[in-house]
Write a structure and sequence with these properties.
Chemotaxis Receptor Methyltransferase Cher, domain 1, S-adenosyl-L-methionine, globular, transferase
Length: 279
């Protein structure tokens, strides 16, 4: 059972329109393998039958979440690209405090494309350390973590990770912010209550016209996400981010992502770190 060109064209066009993810013909085999489980679950005998179901009223209502989970990539780690967290605490947060973030009593950070939670929980740990080292200077951070995949959001909310996932976390932070399972045969840890309570999770599709955020953000992390979009979509998305970024706020992208040549209202201040100018 193979994914035929006609069905690939229908699916790739739909995925681009709904999720913004570019799906060239070179990804036919990948898409075929990722959707194979859905065909088995639905007891369908061809990708053509899957398309017919997906584009029916019932399919659009019930299958979209499964298609999204199947085609989105969710690679992440604790302390991924660690220089970003150093820049955040040594440069970005002190600069934000200078322009009045502390007086507002809020520090708003958005982990956009949070996957299974490693990034927002890394943020909560490093910011807890910053506040401990600078008592009274930094308001309690409020970290919003969003993703399009319900499956990874469920994992993130549980905040439970296998021991092999926590290797990048420094030993001191492991002792302070991770809770070991009492069952020796269950090699997992859970994020401790304090850093967990700093983070709220929600589902968000970057292709939505409005993100529905109630307040402006001081910092946005969107790393290793826009690489899956074409250049036009990347530029549109960064402009939308900037509408939710406070003047003087920071945007962090992934190490392989660049805004070079893009017409967007932020200036590069460090490798893959951008800042929205102050008025």
């Amino acid at each position: 059972m193979n994914l035929q060109p006609r069905d690939f064209t229908r699916l790739s066009g739909f995925i681009y329109g709904e999720l913004g993810i570019k799906m060239p013909s070179s990804k036919t085999t990948m898409l075929e393998s990722r959707l194979a489980k859905r065909l088995r679950a639905l007891k369908l005998d061809s990708y053509g039958a899957y398309c017919d179901y997906l584009f029916s009223d019932q399919g659009l209502a019930e299958e979209m979440v499964h298609l999204t989970n199947a085609v989105t990539t969710n690679k992440t780690d604790f302390f991924r690209e660690p220089n970003h967290f150093t820049y955040l605490t040594q440069t970005a947060i002190p600069e934000l405090l200078k322009i009045g973030t502390a007086e507002r009593g809020k520090l708003k950070i958005w982990s956009a494309g949070c996957s299974s939670g490693e990034e927002p929980y890394t943020l909560s740990m490093v910011l807890s350390e910053f506040r401990e080292q600078h008592p009274g200077r930094c308001p309690r951070p409020q970290i919003l973590a969003t993703d399009i995949s319900d499956r990874v959001l469920d994992m993130a909310r549980r905040a439970v990770y296998h021991l092999d996932r926590i290797a990048p976390i420094p030993p001191l932070l492991r002792r302070k912010y991770l809770l070991k399972s009492k069952n020796p045969s269950n090699p997992v840890v859970r994020i401790a209550p304090e850093p967990r309570e700093m983070v709220s999770f929600g589902r968000l599709n970057f292709m939505d016209d409005a993100f529905g955020l109630d307040e402006m953000q001081d910092v946005i992390f969107c790393r290793n996400v826009i690489i899956y979009f074409d250049r036009e979509t990347q530029e549109q998305l960064v402009r939308k981010f900037c509408r939710h970024l406070r003047p003087g706020g920071y945007l962090f992208l992934g190490h392989s992502e660049s805004l070079h040549g893009c017409d967007v209202p932020v200036k590069q201040v460090a490798p893959t770190v951008y800042r929205k100018p102050l008025p």
